[in-house]
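User: Please go through the entry that follows and flag anything odd:
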Amino acid sequence: MRYVIFNKPYGVLCQFTDQAGRSTLKDYIPFPAIYPVGRLDFDSEGLLLLTDDGQLNHRLADPRYKQPKTYWAQVEGNPNEEQRRKLEDGVIIGGSKTRPAKVAILTEPPAIWERSKPIRFRKTVPTTWLAITLSEGMNRQVRKMTAAVGLPCLRLVRSAIGPLQLGSLQPGQYTEIKKPLSL
C-alpha cells in the first residue's frame, strides 16, 4: 500500500486527467494507481492524502466516521462572537444543517506560502483568518458556511486530516508516509 501527503497548489484539479488541459495531480504525483482521499476544490489549497488503500479511503471520506479535517480560511471582514458561534453550531446549506464545528479566530495569519494568484484586496475591507475543524465534507462546505454568516471566504487551505499535518510541505511537494495507524 502507498500513502502520499501532497500540498495541492491553487489552481490544480484533484484528479489525474482533464479534457480542458488544466493542471491536475498528474503534473505532480508520479505514482500510478493512487487516488485522492476526498477532494479540494480547484481554488483551494493544502493537504491532500492519496492512497491505493481502498479501506482507508472509505474510512476517511465517509462522513459516518467523523474524521476531523482542519482548514485555514481567510475571510472578508472581522468576525464577531455571534458569527463564530453560528459556524460552531452549524449553519443551513442547501436545506441541511452542517454538523457542529470547532472555530477559532486566529490573531495572526498562519505561516504559509504566498498564493500563486493573490486574493482580491480592498483597502477598506479587512480580512481575518479562521481555523475551522469539520467532521463532514459537503461540497464547498467551508466556503458556504462562512458565506452563510456574512464572511465570504477569500482563501482556503486544508492544514490537517485527523492526525496528518501539512507540516513544512510547500505547494506542489509531496512525501510518502507509512500507513497512518490512528486513522
Notes: Residues 81-89 form the longest helix (9 residues). The first strand starts at residue 3 and ends at 8. The radius of gyration is 16 Å.
